[in-house]
Amino acid sequence: MSAASADEAPRIGFKRHLRAEVAAGEGAYLFSEEGMTLLKGSHVESVVSLLDGTRDVATVLGSVPVGVTREQAAGVLATLSSAGLITLRSGEPQPNDSASAYWEAAGLDSGSAAVQTARSAVRLIVLGEVPGADAEAALRAAGLIVHTDGGVADVDLTVVLCSDYLDPRLAAIDAEQRAAGRPWLPAKPVGTKIWIGPIFDTTQPGCWHCLAARIWGNRNAERCAQTALGRSGPAPAPAVSIPPTSAAAGSLVAAEATKWLAGHRHANQRAVWTLDTLAMTGRHHAVPVRPQCPTCGDPDLVRARAYQPVVLGSRPKVADGGGGYRAVTPERTMAAYRHLISPVTGVVKEITRDERGPELFNVFRSGPNLAACDDLGVLRASLRMSNGGKGITPAHAEVSALCESVERYSASCHGDEAKVRGSLRGLGEVAIHPNDVMLYDERQYRDRAEWNRRHSSFQWVCEPFDDDAELDWTPVWSVTHRRHRLLPTALLYFGADGRAPNGRPMVRADSNGNAAGASLEDAVLQGTLELIERDAVAIWWYNRYRAAAVDLDAFADPWLDRVREAHAELGRQIWVLDLTSDLGIPVMVALSRRTDRETEDIIMGFGAHLDAAIALRRSLSELNQMMPVVVNATPDGRYDIDDPDAVAWWRHATIANQPYLRPDLAADPRTPRDYPRLCSNDLADDIELVRRRLAGQGLDLLVLDQTRPDIGLPVVKVVVPGLRHFWSRFAPGRLYDVPVRLGRRATPADYSELNPMPMFL
Asked: Cross-referenced InterPro entries, in alphabetical order (predicted)?
């Protein structure tokens, strides 16, 4: 029970937002706006009838009827008090009033709340043309002392009204409030969507810069447009409001300020609350605390991590329900990171199911692909224009979509990455030549202008690398040799500057080897398997050799049967080829083509895993992920994307004119017995097996930990110089040597013999 002063006889009664009625022989009913509660138990009826707020404790205990002892009555009071249902009041009895009831519903002492608000002063700052009269009137109506003079310093809370939370003037306001140790409340009372909060409490971590960083992350298209227009900062928006929404916004802002000053505290005061006044829906958006924030945190956290060894520890596996073996189930991963999904403060705006195609496809989308481009024109052009998730179940696919968005966010250049300035020649042997990773052929450099004009940005051929050019380099950890090496920052982070003196890129990041996982070990293994998968795909695709079929029936997987049935209902045929390379780790390609018309719309999906059955499932899951774009293709060959390579492929490629897509009939179809068991019970042991396989071919396993402190979900960039991306990278090496080693060709292919169609996925 709340305390009363020592010189008063406090009265006891139910909190004012509650109303009690005794039902003889039943107990007592307690009514509130939240519903009804039945109070039962010995002597409840006798005590409840006395708790009308006009008696002190002694009077209540002395007024219980015959048969109820003072001790029994005191026990009932103690029970009601521990449940937060009754309170003590001082002073003269007053009739119940709505304000007191409100504060008691909030868990506050109504008298103290009234005194506190009457003593509190608020400074109101209005930026630009935002109307502030409604908020000022509402603050005064709440009994607060309101100052609109910018010179006032002795206030308890600053309220700032703005038209955009990215208004650059908010940075100065945040700095001023932090220096003064004063809390402040931003609000956007205009537009169809009202924003209120958070309350920045300077005694707690987190600041406006933490919030602004996330908001900008969800407005990348706007930033691109502003850059194209030669401007910076947020784009100005038209004034949008009607008097009722302006008045409502002002009152809601005042209510949030008044609650804070009265002493009410709750977790959502650390969030942005948005109210859609058109749909009348509200939502809270968690505001991040960014430990690496240069204003309120340590900006060296990311930089320091890059100089530390990547330590891979034991990580026992759990079955994740069909998509593989991880350290944590997809359901637990989603529960831990769902707060990252928000169109305001999230790393992911939203995750939605792609409704094109059968539900079995389990395809989810999670916003634009930050790896795709830095300009608006390419957002529609590529098959990978958006981040997406795939999986055996909706839970797998939803988590996959979340992780891909977090992966791309974490791999974007934020400015706090570890960087060493220098040239390849000047840095010496610690630096790795970027073309050992990119693997462009000299002839590609020579013909790059014409190539780049004809193909999508994913196939872009950079400028020849200048060994004497000064640029930024970032440490990566060699798991093989247990030491740091250096690679160009622009090869590792999207948006980093890798330009030559002429302003054109010499190096360019891509997502090959980027991976997020429930643990560091999970992410490293997935990133490495992706590199192995794409290397095997490139070797097959550009050499155009026939590969052995995979016997789907032999795997006896009911899910595979359902996938085949779903494709058959769409008039399509499915088959799978084994692309396992000299590394001996199962890699497969699943293919699907139309059989009901001349245009076959051939689509592919790839998968790699130490367990062949999981590699097979992954290839089919990725196939399903790619399917929506062709499911709704029009008979005249129009698709939902503009990638010239992909569209040309779907319009013209058939198994007749691309015979390497068909199985090698001279080879026996692969069955589970053809694949040795490589999986262990621990992710760290799996990584060690893969490392040994790579080292056996003279390949170095490099890892950069890209985990962002404010996210927590482990993200890595895995690089294996010499492994081939499946895009057009034609330098000498495995692309030519491995087919001979595997007996696919008698002699290495000539450059002119390579597949002229670039891999477009």
From this structure: Bacteriocin_synth_cyclodeHase, TOMM_cyclo_SagD, Ubiquitin-activating_enz, YcaO-like_dom
Our CA dihedral for 731, 733, 738, 739, rounded to 10 degrees, sits at 40
Label residue 380 by pLDDT band (50, 70, 90): very low
CB 690 within 8 A of CB 312: no
Q: What is the pLDDT of residues 264-306, one digit of tens each?
A: 999 999 999 999 999 999 999 999 999 999 999 999 999 999 9
**Cα radius of gyration (the chain):** 32
Q: Contact, 389 vs 401, CB < 8 A? A: yes
Q: Return d(Cα 497, Cα 474) in angstroms, integer.
A: 12
Q: Which two tokens stand for residue 338?
A: 């769902």
d(CA 442, CA 359): 46
Confidence at 94, pLDDT banded by 50, 70, 90: low
* DSSP, residue by residue, 78-114: HHHHHTT-EEEE-SS-----HHHHHHHHTTS-HHHHH
Query: What DSSP line would sit under 293-340, residue for residue?
Result: -TTTS-TTHHHHHHTS-------B-EE-SSS-EESS-HHHHHHHHGGG
Burial of 295 (0-12, 13-18, 19+ CB in 10 A): middle
Min mean pLDDT across 96-110, 133-147, 546-560, 644-658 is at 96-110
Q: How far apart (Å, rounded) are the C-alpha atoms in residues 476 and 335?
A: 31
Whole-structure pTM value: 0.89
Based on the number of CB atoms within 10 Å of its own CB, is 258 exposed (0-12), middle (13-18) or buried (19 or more)?
buried
Cβ atoms of 348 and 360 within 8 Å: the answer is no
Please name the residue ranges forming H helices in 53-183: 57-62, 70-82, 98-105, 110-119, 133-141, 169-180
Phi-psi region of 620 (alpha: psi -120 to 50; beta: other; left: phi over 0): alpha
Sign of CA pseudo-dihedral 652, 658, 560, 383: negative
- Looking at per-residue pLDDT, the higher value among 70 and 489 belongs to 489
Check residue 318 and give its pLDDT: 77
Strands 193-196 and 271-276: antiparallel
Which residue in 306, 211, 198 sits closest to 260, CA to CA?
A: 198
Contacts for 139 with CB less than 8 Å, ≥ 6 apart: 122, 124, 146, 159, 253, 254, 257, 258
Q: How far apart are CA 409 and CA 540, in angstroms?
A: 31
CA-CA-CA-CA torsion sign (164, 169, 175, 180)? negative
Nearest alpha-carbon partner for 177 in 196, 200, 161 = 200
Highest mean pLDDT among 51-65, 466-480, 629-643: 466-480
Q: Is 14 buried (19+), middle (13-18) or exposed (0-12) by CB count in 10 A?
A: buried
For 689-724, give one letter per residue: b (16+ CB within 10 A) or e: bbbebbeebebbbbbbbbbbbbbebbbbbbbbbbbb
Do 651 and 644 contact (CB within 8 A), yes or no? no
Token look-up 């004009």 returns 453
Tell me, rounded to whole angstroms, the distance of Cα 277 from its chain centroid. 27
Q: Report the relative pairing of strands 19-23 and 27-32 from DSSP bridges.
A: antiparallel
Cβ neighbours of residue 250 under 8 Å, at least 6 residues apart? 132, 133, 134, 135, 136, 137, 138, 189
> Is 457 in contact with 381 (CB distance < 8 Å)?
yes
Amino acid at 221: A
| CA–CA distance, 664 with 643 (Å, rounded to integer) | 30
Strands 715-719 and 386-389: unpaired
Beta bridge partners of 52: 13
DSSP assigned state of 373: -
Please report, for residues 361, 563, 677, the alpha-carbon distance to residue 569 in angstroms, rounded to integers and kept in the order given: 13, 10, 35
